[in-house]
Design brief:
Blueprint: H1 7-18, H2 23-30, H3 34-43, E1 49-50, E2 53-54, E3 61-62, E4 65-66, E5 98-99, E6 108-109, H4 122-129
Antiparallel strand pairs: 1-2, 3-4, 5-6
Helix pairs in contact: 2-3
Length: about 130
């Protein structure tokens, strides 16, 4: 058996791509995986563009209902300055939100009073999880 990607098959792939067929449809017809088709299209330099940008994922759907994209959480400014404590200075109720690169020995912890049952102060909980009731 010869190579899978013959010049004829490459031309067929190029034509189907130009017609707007999806990699999933083409992969089913060829009997190969979708990543195989995507990889070949990439190696051939074929990329779908919308308004001069590379295409983005389609919105998620449930049946015929399109779900809106999940909004990004806004960065909540910290109202109270952290205490910048070292780990041995933390109390049981201290906020353990890490300030700085945790791999660096220079990192510190917020140290403000944490929410009951939480490891972080209310402001850092809001920053990480969004507004909590």
């Amino acid at each position: 058996m010869g190579p899978f990607w013959t010049p004829e098959r490459e031309e067929d792939l190029r034509q189907r791509f130009d017609r707007g067929e999806t990699a999933r449809t083409i992969s089913r017809d060829y009997g190969v995986s979708r990543p195989t088709i995507c990889g070949k299209l990439d190696r051939m330099g074929l990329k779908r563009e919308i308004d001069g940008r590379r295409s983005q994922r389609r919105p998620k759907t449930i049946g015929n209902i399109s779900l809106p994209p999940r909004p990004l959480k806004p960065i909540v400014p910290i109202k109270t300055a952290p205490l910048l404590l070292e780990i041995h200075e933390l109390r049981p109720d201290s906020c353990r939100y890490i300030i700085g690169d945790p791999r660096s020995p220079a990192h510190r912890y917020c140290g403000l009073t944490s929410k009951p049952g939480q490891s972080w102060c209310p402001e850092h909980c809001d920053r990480v999880f969004g507004r909590m009731a």
